[in-house]
């Protein structure tokens, strides 16, 4: 895979209401682990729309990985000013990401008008990528379910890789993080 879309839940869907919630570090660590493996296999571009949650955190992870890896970040929001109603901290994080990404273009260069803009974004993403990495739990569908349905339909006639970060992956990440803490072994 040369190009992958990364998506998943919004923070509220994960019970995360502050950027300094410890769950954010766990999610970012899990995303980083998966992306580094994909970069080692030839991944060149990560595509996000920049929505709050998994996508913004992925953007932050990629910006950090750029110091060590040759990886590019594309941010393609569905419409102009998608961040205008977000909390200030999220808006600032989004601005940093769009300032430092390798490619930025709005799917629709106008303000929000309707759900068709999200559908168009999703269709564009699937048609212009080789696969998707999605933080997803089948027991908690939430907003990613719509993109997942599109991918499943697309896969009926096209080769498209679909990778997941599951609750089990997050549990493993927590355990790995605990074991790398020097204090863990002295308890």
UniProtKB/TrEMBL annotation:
Source domain of life: Bacteria
InterPro entries the record matches: YspA (IPR010697)
Identification of the protein by name: UPF0398 protein GCM10010954_05210
Name of one Pfam family that matches: YpsA
PANTHER family listed in its UniProt record: UPF0398 PROTEIN SPR0331, UPF0398 PROTEIN YPSA
Family as reported in the entry's similarity comment: Belongs to the UPF0398 family.
Matches recorded under NCBIfam families: PRK13660.1
Organism, scientific name: Halobacillus andaensis
Signal peptide: none
């Amino acid at each position: 895979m040369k190009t992958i879309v990364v998506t998943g839940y919004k923070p509220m869907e994960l019970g995360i209401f502050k950027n300094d919630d410890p769950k954010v570090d766990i999610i970012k660590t899990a995303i980083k682990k998966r992306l580094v493996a994909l970069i080692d296999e030839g991944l060149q571009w990560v595509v996000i729309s920049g929505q709050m949650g998994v996508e913004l955190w992925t953007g932050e992870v990629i910006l950090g990985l750029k110091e060590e890896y040759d990886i590019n970040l594309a941010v393609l929001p569905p419409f102009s000013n998608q961040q205008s109603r977000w909390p200030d901290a999220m808006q600032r994080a989004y601005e940093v990401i769009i300032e430092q990404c390798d490619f930025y273009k709005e799917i629709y260069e106008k303000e929000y008008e309707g759900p068709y803009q999200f559908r168009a974004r999703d269709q564009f993403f699937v048609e212009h990528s080789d696969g998707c990495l999605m933080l997803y739990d089948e027991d908690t569908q939430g907003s990613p379910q719509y993109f997942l349905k599109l991918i499943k339909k697309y896969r009926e006639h096209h080769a498209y890789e679909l990778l997941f970060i599951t609750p089990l992956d997050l549990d493993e990440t927590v355990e790995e993080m605990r074991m790398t803490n020097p204090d863990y072994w002295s308890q």
